[in-house]
Amino acid sequence: MSGTTAPPSDFAVYRTLVRWDWLREMKRKSTLISMGMMGLITLFLFSFAIPLTSDKADVLVDTRAGILWVTFLFAATIGIDRAFRNDAESGLLEGLLLAPISRPTLYYARVTSTLLFIVALQVVLLVLFLVLFNQRLEGEGLWGLIAATLATDIGFVTIGVMISAMTWSLPGGDVLLRILLFPMLLPIFNVAVEITDRAFEGQAPLTKHLGMLFAIDVLFLGAGHLLFEHLVKDSGGRP
Hints:
mainly alpha, 8 helices
């Protein structure tokens, strides 16, 4: 029929949702501030626990990769927890679920926006870590850490957003999110720490490590794509 307007494509809706979520958080800033403060406090606690003295140098070398990823994890989990909680508290989530938006599109948009927040925060935390602990990253080590961090973040965020959709409406959902999320992240963070150890030594990541991260990312993305619709079906949206 002439004069009718074609509905926007899923990709157009996806871009709109990501942009809207980013601009909204940039204006509100509460989530980013909470994530930043958690990361900063964690770094300072570790800096006091491991003094930068000569007799502690070996301890720092053995633990620096773990310190960095624990800091990333604690800070990023706040962003994961808020992936749907902020919208639910303000009533926006119900509107999103009632809108004619496919569930996978909503899922991927929220994964992307959350990933952008976390990556932006990690850049700042990495610089602070290098300064506080007097560390250097360059050459193959730096590029290897960037690749490993992105691959790890994709898996972390995809499974985290799915669990956030499952726990936001439950009493004590923020605690339950961490109880469910942390054990699932052990394999991916174990690989990330190994790659980061090599990065601080100026070495590129091993192909098997990147392959493991890629396989986990695909597994978590597939789980989120298949399960997200069922997780939000009882949250006020249409089936």
